[in-house]
Structures are given as structure tokens and as C-alpha cells.
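Milestone 3.1: sequence recovery, worked example.
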């Protein structure tokens, strides 16, 4: 595998949080246009990243059906168990079909974790070393939980971090924007135009 400077980290693009029939759905109504906007933005991000040969790490969260591997010290985790969501092998824990990984590509990886921060207790750091990533383009749902938690860890670990804002979502626009504002201290926040320019400046 050839070294890469930039890697895309795609967080929780799973049925449970993005499909209208999901149990979590990041607080969006089943017919919310925000959902399709996020799906389209993330799909376009994947297309551009693949065209540029960037590695993509697809991060999923999933637990045993008995939740024996779920620490219930946080309200959000207790809520996952209470809603019987994100169990391993279930439809809800699978990637949304529009944002499924290309499992035949040597440039795409799948990482599973069980906490807020995608680095914690997962092989994400090891995968990023394999592809020699120094800069991370991070996106996912929800903006104020897994995205912000992962961005904070990545910044502390020394990565240059960018956030693809159009491919992120939270329970409300206010929460989403507050998280982006908070992360702007540690990462470059890219709107749609800036994200397109970012890819335009990469070799394809």
C-alpha cells in the first residue's frame, strides 16, 4: 500500500442513525430533508476521496445482543441499550446502503468500537499508521458526539484535522452548529465550497 497523507474517517453511517426506520436517527424526523442532505454529501465525499485514492476508514458502533460489552456509565449508552439499538448482526448496525464501504478496495477499512471516541479501544490508530495518515478528514453522525469526541482525540494525538460539515448532522441545527463552533478550536471546518476546493487541490 502506498503511503497517504490524508485519510477520511467516516463515523456511524449506519442504518440505526440514518435510515428513517432506525431506532436512533440522530433526532431527525423520518421525512427530514437533513437526512438526505447528509447522505448525499457523504456519498459525494466518498466519490471524491476514491477518485483521489484517499484511504477511507468506515467506523461503526455495535454491541453484543446481550450488551455485556456496553459500559452504561453515560446516559447516551444507557439509551442505546434501552432502545435495543446497535446490536451486532442486526440491520440497524449495518452501514446505510448509500454509504456502504467498498469491501473490495485495499484503500478502505472497517473499524468497530463501543464508545464515543472512535479511537478508544479500537484499532483506528493502527489503521492510520498503516496508511501513514498525517491529516484526517472527519465526518459522521452525530456531530456533537462521535464526531467531536474523535476530532478532539485526533487533534491531541497530533493529526491535522478537518471536518466535512455537510456530511455531519446532530439532533438539531443548533446542536450541530455549536459542535462545529467548538471543534473550530482544534480543526478546520469545511463547508460545501471549502470541501469541494479541498478535493480539487488534491491530485487525482
Amino acid at each position: 500500500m502506498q503511503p497517504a497523507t490524508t485519510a477520511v474517517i467516516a463515523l456511524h453511517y449506519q442504518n440505526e442513525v440514518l435510515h428513517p426506520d432506525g431506532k436512533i436517527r440522530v433526532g431527525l424526523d423520518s421525512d427530514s430533508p437533513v437526512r438526505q442532505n447528509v447522505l448525499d454529501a457523504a456519498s459525494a465525499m466518498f466519490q471524491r476521496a476514491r477518485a483521489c485514492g484517499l484511504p477511507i476508514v468506515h467506523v461503526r458502533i455495535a454491541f453484543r445482543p446481550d450488551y455485556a460489552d456496553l459500559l452504561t456509565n453515560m446516559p447516551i449508552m444507557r439509551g442505546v441499550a434501552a432502545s435495543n439499538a446497535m446490536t451486532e448482526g442486526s440491520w440497524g448496525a449495518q452501514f446505510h446502503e448509500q454509504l456502504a464501504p467498498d469491501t473490495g478496495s485495499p484503500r478502505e477499512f472497517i473499524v468497530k468500537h463501543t464508545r464515543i471516541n472512535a479511537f478508544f479501544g479500537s484499532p483506528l490508530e493502527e489503521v492510520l499508521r498503516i496508511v501513514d495518515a498525517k491529516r484526517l478528514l472527519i465526518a459522521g453522525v452525530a456531530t456533537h458526539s462521535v464526531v467531536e469526541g474523535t476530532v478532539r482525540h485526533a487533534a491531541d494525538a497530533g493529526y491535522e484535522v478537518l471536518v466535512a460539515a455537510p456530511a455531519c448532522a446532530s439532533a438539531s441545527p443548533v446542536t450541530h452548529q455549536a459542535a462545529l463552533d467548538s471543534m473550530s478550536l482544534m480543526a478546520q471546518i469545511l463547508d460545501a465550497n471549502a470541501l469541494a476546493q479541498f478535493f480539487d487541490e488534491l491530485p487525482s
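The helical segments are 15-18, 33-51, 75-82, 124-130, 143-156, 173-183, 192-200. The mean pLDDT is 93.
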